[in-house]
Design brief:
582 residues, mainly beta, Immunoglobulin-like, TIM Barrel, Jelly Rolls, 3 domains, ten-stranded mixed beta sheet, six-stranded antiparallel beta sheet, 33% strand, binds alpha-L-arabinofuranose
């Protein structure tokens, strides 16, 4: 491999090249990155229908003791449904309540992760014609072990009353549930029941462990909130930003009909912009352009959509005194968000004849096809709109639920992206997250449950590229490449922690045999040669190319570092079969 480090042959890589794409798919947000523990907090999952779908809320007690139904009596105009709990039993008399009382419980998203020593903020709205004594508890999954408890005792809740309680957990169970019970005959209505851990990232509502996995990738941008999620199968179920801002209690929520689940939209337009800021990434807002999978507005009726988008821009970027900017300011962010990029719809590129600054490119294919697409942009025009590779991944049999083989195909492709970054502005893997209890798409970069998580090899592969944004691409060429199974690139980048310049060479060996490779560095200059003091080789490989990580073996396929003993401008390294190396 010849690497020429002279300035004359070098070129700057765009600051924005590698980022992430967050889509509300696989419960990535609701039941994932968004830390809300109550699933269907407003009893609204059926949408505006009565009776609505209170799933996964369940009833504690049989029909002789308690009747649970819904009606439209909520104090929130945009989500009118509330749950009515009719307690038929009492402490005394003919119909005695079971121990602990009767009521409802919410199991969260396949179990709430309650951890000893941590606190959880419960907010709910309650109404009754009589005085109430409701016991609130966080319990283990079968309701037996109490991890936190409190009582709501009130003489007069004849109008809707907001209750806030801080619950301190005295035990740990990743499969807990929230119970609301009473042993007093009467009718109680509940609405907008929320339980949030208090230790979210900066108190912004993001689950810290999952947020950390994103931050570690140093993403230059974050594209959100989808994908197909933005379009909807039908326009009536598309993500519409205005429905997702303001007080969480007042958000109507919506049924994402492509990935088939309800979201309360706690993670809304504001929170996505906040997420981008917290990640030090540029937000890329994908908005619905009047097109869904099965219907679309007629061009003559598109103006309300255009206005909605302009309002969304004002919400993000406008002065805090502007109409929509002031709502953002009221939500706690007077400073404008740094929104510079928007994407018009999803996968509709074929439909526009108008020139855009960037054009969207998606690739999902087999490992060898994605690997060989490293050359796809070799002949792409260097002038005019650049590509936004906003979704790439190896899929199908080669990928399983996230194989080494998939990661190698993608790494090869990204080396091609890096080398062609004159014609490409941005690239992001898809999808980012999967809650293991609701796999709608395989594979994904980060797998999690209520309490666990791991990165697939494709997640770790992205770590090899996290220094590339804004780095300098050096000219590099492989002098021999039998069966085209190798691909390589070289960059220099400055580490802001120690202010030193580093050289990073990446090589994918997609072949099945080990390769001895000689790396010849030219153009380094005498000073740099003298300070070429050490080198580390990082390798992503495994015994079997179909190996995957799992909750049991989260570190089976992760980057492994080793010191290179003999460092020189002419050194030899061995590339393992089926490996990514840097
Ligand atoms: O990444 C999953 C889906 O693939 C996205 O929603 C869509 O844009 C693409 O078809």
């Amino acid at each position: 491999l010849l690497v020429n480090a002279s300035e004359a042959s070098a070129r700057k890589i765009p600051d924005t090249l590698f980022g992430i794409f967050f889509e509300e798919i696989n419960h990535a947000g609701a039941g994932g990155l968004w830390a809300e523990l109550v699933n269907n907090r407003g009893f609204e999952a059926g949408g505006p229908n009565v009776p609505s779908n209170i799933d996964p809320w369940s009833i504690i007690g049989d029909e002789s003791k308690v009747i649970v139904s819904t009606d439209r009596s909520s104090c929130f105009d945009r989500n009118k449904i509330a749950v009515q709990v009719q307690v038929l039993c009492d402490h005394t008399g003919a119909n005695i309540c079971p121990d602990g009382g009767v009521g409802i419980y919410n199991p969260g998203f396949w179990g709430m992760n309650i951890e000893q020593g941590k606190s959880y903020k419960l907010v709910l709205y309650v109404r009754s014609q009589e005085s109430i004594n409701v016991s609130v508890a966080l319990t283990g999954s079968n309701g037996s072990q109490k991890l936190a408890a409190a009582n709501i005792v009130a003489a007069d809740v004849s109008s809707w009353t907001k209750v806030e309680i801080l619950l301190e957990a005295t035990g740990t169970d990743p499969n807990s549930r929230l119970e609301l019970r009473s042993s007093k005959k009467g009718v109680i209505w509940f609405d907008q029941v929320s339980l949030m851990p208090t230790d979210t990232y900066k108190g912004h509502g993001f689950r810290k462990d999952l947020f950390g996995m994103l931050k570690d990738l140093k993403p230059a941008f974050i594209r959100f909130p989808g994908g197909c999620f933005v379009e909807g199968d039908w326009l009536r179920n598309a993500f519409r930003w205005k429905e997702t801002i303001g007080q969480w209690e007042e958000r109507p929520g919506h049924f994402g009909d492509v990935w088939n689940y309800w979201t309360d939209d706690g993670l809304g337009h504001f929170e996505f912009l906040q997420l981008a800021e917290d990640l030090d990434s540029l937000p890329v807002w994908v908005f619905n352009n009047g097109v869904s999978h099965h219907d679309q507005v007629d061009t003559s009726s598109i103006l309300p959509f255009v206005q909605e988008i302009l309002d969304g821009l004002e919400f993000a970027r406008g002065d805090p005194t502007s109409a929509w900017g002031s709502i953002r300011a009221k939500m706690g962010h007077p400073e404008p968000f740094d929104l510079r990029y928007v994407a018009i719809g999803n996968e509709d590129c074929g439909k526009t004849k108008y020139r855009a600054d960037l054009y969207d490119f998606h690739i999902y294919s087999s490992a060898s096809s994605v690997f060989s697409n490293a050359r796809h942009f070799d002949s792409a025009p260097r002038r005019g709109p650049k590509a936004f590779v906003s979704e790439y991944a190896v899929t199908g049999n080669d990928a399983g639920k996230g194989s080494l083989l998939a990661a190698l195909g993608e790494a090869g492709f990204l080396i091609g992206v890096e080398k062609n970054s004159e014609a490409i502005e941005m690239a992001s893997y898809a999808p980012l997250f999967v809650n293991d209890n609701d796999r709608r798409w395989n594979p994904d970069a980060i797998v999690f449950t209520s309490s666990q998580m791991y990165g697939t090899p494709s997640y770790w592969m992205q770590h090899f590229f996290k220094e590339s944004n804004g780095a300098t691409l050096l000219s590099s060429s492989l002098q021999a490449n039998p069966s085209n199974s190798l691909i390589a690139s070289a960059i220099t980048w400055r580490n802001s922690l120690d202010n030193n310049d580093y050289l990073r060479i990446k090589v994918v060996n997609f072949g099945t045999t080990a390769v001895n490779i000689k790396i010849s560095l030219t153009g380094l200059g005498q000073n740099s040669l003298e300070t070429l003091f050490g080198a580390v080789m990082t390798e992503l490989t495994s015994n079997n190319v179909m190996d995957e990580n799992s909750f049991k073996e989260p570190n089976k396929v992760i980057p492994v570092k080793a010191l290179i003993e003999k460092v020189s401008d002419n050194m030899e390294v061995v590339l393992a079969p089926r490996s990514l190396n840097s």
